[in-house]
Amino acid sequence: MAAPTFYNEMLDADGGTRPHYAAYRRWLDETPPERIAAKRAEADALFHRVGITFAVYGQEDGAERLIPFDVIPRIIPAHEWRQLSAGLRQRVRALNAFIGDIYHGQEILKAGVVPETQVLCNVQYRPEMQGIDVPGGIYAHIAGIDVVRAGAGEFYVLEDNLRVPSGVSYMLEDRRMMMRLFPELFARYKVAPVEHYPDLLLDTLRSVAPQGVADPTVVVMTPGAFNSAYFEHAFLAQQMGVELVEGKDLFVEDEQVFMRTTQGPQRVDVIYRRIDDDFLDPLAFRPQSMLGVPGLLSAYRAGRVTLSNAIGSGVADDKSIYPFVPEMIRFYLGEAPILNNVPTWQCRKKDELAHVLAHLPELVVKEVHGAGGYGMLVGPAASAAEIEAFRAQLVATPERYIAQPTLALSSCPTFVDSGVAPRHIDLRPFVLSGREIRFVPGGLTRVALKEGSLVVNSSQGGGTKDTWVLEE
After folding, report:
1. By residue range, what is the domain housing residue 148?
2. Does residue 90 sit in the same domain as residue 33?
3. CA 93 to CA 333: how far, in whole Å?
4. What is the C-alpha separation between 107 and 316, in angstroms, rounded?
5. How far apart are the first and last CA of the chain?
6. What is the pLDDT of residues 58-71, one digit of tens each?
7. pTM score of the predicted model
């Protein structure tokens, strides 16, 4: 392999192997490419058989896709994971404090740390949540924090996902697949386990049940089988041993939520909802929604049911709020941020918009409410026509966008059709907040399979890798 031009997770600047990859590199050099190719084909067949697919919205054929799985793991040494862990805990603590504050005293707005209009005029801000106390003061029980490594190897937080973060089922299935395909590797390496995530998730959800409920009933609420992440909804319900429900399976009576069962109504105490705020309760939000439960907000306001994540949490993961997270950490925790943000220009500001317009071919521009890799411009990969079309959008509605430098995302050896080659990656650890903050070591590593691509989203042709955190 040639020496890397980006930070390479396996190779140093001189082309030598980093110590934490040494045993794996020896195994890789000794293994015929034909065997790896056969194992990749076996993985694809097994994933198809299990039904690990996702739908791409907007595709005319409506076909479900298999997320490509790469058989070369991303390996993180113990000391790096310690640093990441501390930064993730700190960030999620601050984000939960921020959400609690904006729905109560709004001290951070009064102090001028975050502009009032950025919050109160945000489409993700829910006035209905004002003054509502939630168990333990926890709003974002499940957070997916997207982390990238760039430059000389420093970690940055790319974005925070606090509404309905997805992908943890792929993290778990990728590990199962690697252990099935390459059991000998797990004898060589002390890889920290991840398979206990469903147990941690269930324990977290039970820990935030309404006050006075000793043995809470937990359910996973899905929009239904046509949702792009339905496999994950069903998978997590099965792994936790709880019911998978749709809105039509639930009803509210006397400000309590009940589930219809063959034995009659059963009270529900905690709902891990995988449905956006707008669709949760047709009496409170979108009247035409057929996915939600009429009266759910009233039961929630009365403290008779817990929703994970809380209604209104999305205001803290909006990309227009992202630039203020380091200041949230200082404001609420009195600490310096452990993990840095990516430098960000807010296009709603006249001078920052001017900079973005002048450097558009060099930047990544994102919609503040966008997700999944949609609604963004990757300047260096865009055509002149695409750049000019985006320029017109920016001039017309600058408040809808932020911009960031095009990061030199780290690369990881990946098995592609031409053999082993570097491809760019990110990492989404899943942080659980209940009585305490917990997570399994690692997360979902997403990989941009197209040569040179920096977009790792599955909806944009990305794949996944198993993430190995080495134990001491």
Report:
1. 19-210+305-341+407-469
2. yes
3. 8
4. 15
5. 28
6. 444 445 567 788 99
7. 0.92
